[in-house]
Amino acid sequence: MSKITSSPPGGTAGKMHYGFIIVACCCLMMGVNVGLSFSCAGIFYEPVSRAIGVSVGKFGIYMSVMYVASSLMLPLAGRMIERMSARLLFTASCAIMGLTYLAMAFFDNVWEFYASGAVMGCTLAFLLYLSFPTLVNRWFRTKVGLLIGVCSAASGIGGMIFNPIAAWIITEWGWRVAYCCFAGLLLFVVTPLLYAFLRDWPSDKGLLPFGAKESEEKAGGSSSASVSGIEYSHAVKMPVFYSLILFSFLMMGISTLNLFIPKYVTSLEFTLEQASYAASAAMAGVTLGKLVLGYINDRNCRLGVLVTTLGGGLGLLLMIFGSHALMLIFGGAFLFGWAYAGVTVQTAMLTREVFGSRSYARIYAMMSIALAVGGAIASGGWGLMADATSLTAIFYTGAGLLALCALIGLSALSSKGNKTPKNA
């Protein structure tokens, strides 16, 4: 039986703490699995919808199905993570996603993509919503916020890498080959690596969580620091709880406009390769935005709200008014990426800032459901709206909704503590 050793901030016995291998696995899941399924989905919209004879809007409904499946799966997935091996659940989810991508290469009907969206949505309940929050909190007692930001940012890096690769494969060999290539990456690279290196708990490696000793010393020698904040039962009675649900819903919905950036660029008579660079510019904004927003929010949450919402809105407007110049489009896509970054960073930081840590996990689970529902409605809804109006119209709408999100976020912070119970 392994001896449980202490794990000071510098590691154990001069060695790197195994928790950082766990972080690398989380970055792999976010960068490849989430990067492919979300950040690269838009590059397939035009060629696939044209090949199977449907509009982009109708094809995009498969993303809505994905979000719905995730939101329905989340309650069950949370219970499964508590009772089963996270290592096996994440590995199996990756393998199932790989098989789904392989099947998509042979689809000829839009309903088949809808079915694949349902399957991938179930896997993403684990790989996106529960992977790095669960594992980082199990393996670390210090640097938790920073590492969550790093893991979250990996999805943007994945988008930056895989969008141009997908565009090149599609241009040279077609979208079916691209799906097969991504399936191979998931099945023969990511899945074996997760199985080989993931572990459920630090005790599996004979360790304590990284920084456990330091955390205990800061808590005055107690094994658990005092936790402040608002109880869940009180939070659900507060109007600000529902305003933050609306904030989460809108932010995720707006972020799905990212899927239409490649289509917007090609509609301006730029090439698919150029459109892929615009998508990569957005992912660069996502990646940098997640890291910088985490830094900003540690110091001033109000400034974080303004940066993610107004910066993203400015990016959408820049893509509209700079449609004649590719570099302006790239700049607008980059700025819009900061709004996308706010989905994971700003909603989490607002929730913690307003409600504290006492019932954070339970409260944020409700925000996560709002995120999934927002993505489910908007990813297909934007496409249908674009079919009825134009891509420019949905970008204008997104900019307006980001301004509304700014007001909601600032109002929520202003109400902080106004209705906090005396025993909170």
C-alpha geometry: globular
Q: Segments where pLDDT lies below 50 for 5+ residues?
A: 9-13, 222-227, 419-424
As a percent range, the share of strand residues is: under 5%
SS elements, strand count:
0
Radius of gyration (Å): 21 Å
Reading the helices and strands in chain order gives: HHHHHHHHHHHHHHHH
SS element count, helices: 16
In quaternary terms, these chains amount to single chain
Textual characterization of the structure:
With 424 residues, this protein is an all-alpha fold. The protein contains 16 helices and no strands. The longest helix is centred in the N-terminal third of the chain and has 30 residues, at 110-139. Residues 9-13, 222-227 and 419-424 have low confidence and may be disordered.
Brief overview:
With 424 residues, the chain is mostly helical. It contains 16 helices and no strands.
Keyphrases for this structure?
single chain; 424 residues; disordered C terminus
Please specify the SSE layout and strand pairing:
Elements: H1 19-39, H2 42-52, H3 56-83, H4 86-104, H5 110-139, H6 144-173, H7 175-197, H8 212-218, H9 232-235, H10 239-255, H11 261-267, H12 272-299, H13 301-321, H14 326-355, H15 360-388, H16 391-414
Helix pairs in contact: 1-5, 1-6, 1-7, 2-3, 3-5, 3-15, 4-5, 4-7, 5-6, 6-7, 6-12, 10-14, 10-15, 10-16, 11-12, 12-13, 12-14, 13-14, 13-16, 14-15, 14-16, 15-16
